[in-house]
Amino acid sequence: MNDTLSSSEMSQVPLLAVDGISGGYRMDRPVLHNITFRVMPGEMVALIGLNGAGKSTTMKHILGLLAPQRGTIRIRGTSLAENPEAYRSSYAFVPETPLLYEELTVYEHLELVARAYGLEREAFEQRAKRLLNVFRMESQKERFSAHLSKGMKQKVMIMSAFLAEPSLYIIDEPFLGLDPLAIRSVLELMAEKREKGAGILLSSHMLSMVDRYCDRFIILHEGRILAAGDLQEIARQAKAPGATLEEVFFRLIESGEAK
Amino acid sequence: MNTGQLWRKRCLSFWSSVAPYIRYVISGGLGAVLILFLTVGGYFYMKLLAAVDERFPAASVTFILLYPLLVRIPLRTFLEEADILFLMPAETQFSPYMKRAILYSFTVRIVLPLLVWTVCWPVYKLAKDAPSSLFFVIAIVLLLIVYANVNGNRAENHFVSEATRRLYALLRWLVTLAALALPLFTVSWKALVPVLFLVAAYMVALRLPRGLSVHWERLIAEEKRHRAHVYTFLSGFVDVPELPRKVRRRRLLEPLARLIPHRRQSAWTYLYLLTWIRSETLAIVLRLMVVAAIVIVFAQELWLKVTAYWIGLLLGGLQLAALSRYHQHDLWTHLYPFPAGKRLSSVRMLCRNILMGIAVLLFVPLAIWLDSWVEGAVSAAGAVIVIWLSIRIGTAT
Fold first, then answer.
1. Rounded-to-integer distance, Cα A188 and Cα B342, Å
2. Which residue from B200, B280, B304, B319 has the highest number of Cβ atoms inside 10 Å of its Cβ?
3. ipTM over 0.90
């Protein structure tokens, strides 16, 4: 895991390269159609779309939980098939619904993640302490996951992801169930990691939040990319220069439906 | 809404989910074990019958065999988590549902006590010189006790206050104790009279505290636990994917996890050690080891002690190896970079180390009886082979 990359690397190798992905759960009915995008170091990219647009499916393909029917996915130049361990060590994922072990306490989850990423004990303890503090979870660290509220479970998933400090973060709907303080903490952490050269792929319905924090936007509709780029670029594509992300989004979806 | 019908549907769907496994249970060795058990048990039972006289503590033995069966009677409601959302609006119509649940639990749970009583009866009759009518008297007492316990359980599940619930559980245990002990120890049908009064008074007492009409959360938790018991039993014979797990903290053992070195290669070991510490498997293995230790200490002949040592380790190993079925398809281990392909070898190594520790502990009582170092070496070598084999067989995929 590198949290800092050399400047030449930063400018050249995309952290995540998704090229012409088509795929889904069934061969005869692909959910995604020819999806292509990049996440560069130091970049925060938002996947935006209605329910069922293909955001989570795209993420599942990146995680290797689904195999694409066509196209390739590379993280820092490596595909999952070429080097599974390097591939998996390069990112951290926060799923939409928290998944935790019944047998483990909050702290043990963090420790397990630290081991999986090969994090040194001291670094782990330091980072864990800070994250527990940031998310106000110190008093909960000895509890079993079954006794946590939905928001707290989500916090465990988020802490696990940030503990590893990988170069790529894939975050699916991180704000659901979080309290306002925790939402701000997540955003600040993401901003901090971006400063250090990490890339973040984020899906969310909270457009105002995404608008403020993300560098680029990918608007998905029915498994296709309707528009991609920074706000100016997608506003131009939506023929609504100067509009907010929300307006641009509605416009694009409407025109997408019209087709 | 016809909640009685709903209960029947739920019950049926539970049993049809279990039915496919029954075949595996029987072919998986339960049949053979049962036959073996019946043959050996029958042999000793005959010997006991021939030797029994009035000095034999028949009442105490019968009591000890029956009591645990009577106080632990779960109420099967077949409720599911989603019911809080979807069935709660129909809460006022729930009494047919609960009536069926009570009737079902009563019918299922009366079988074993009656069976045990039937087996105990010949010995009891001989030792106590009891009249034949007493068999039926005590059978009736058993029916009453099971009925009271099912209803008591239902009531306890509905009390809001935890203190009341505990108090009533204690009351139930005491009432059961008295109602069972009275006829058994007095050897008289007249005991039926106070038992009737006791049970009636208890049934009245159940109505005193205020409770919720349906305590959804507790009933659902209870149902989950019973389901887990059934599936745990089945999982002893076949892989049961829907197995919900019971987790206990066991703080005292937590320091064991500190022994696992903090490095990437031991991520699996760390996960599995904690899983073992908190799972039912630990309790099962410990119980087996206690039984083995008792046989080792009390058996008369050395060969019996050594055999018990080996068999204890063999069964313990097979149980431990069940750990390998945990976390096989967990999403976590795909999301995080766990050392690829190391899962099975990590579990095996962990299981062998645990079993080796147990083997060393069990060797202590055995060693006292060993006369020569040759006997010690043979026992130890056998143990090592058994450890290796049992884990290998138990984790075979």
1. 36
2. B319
3. no
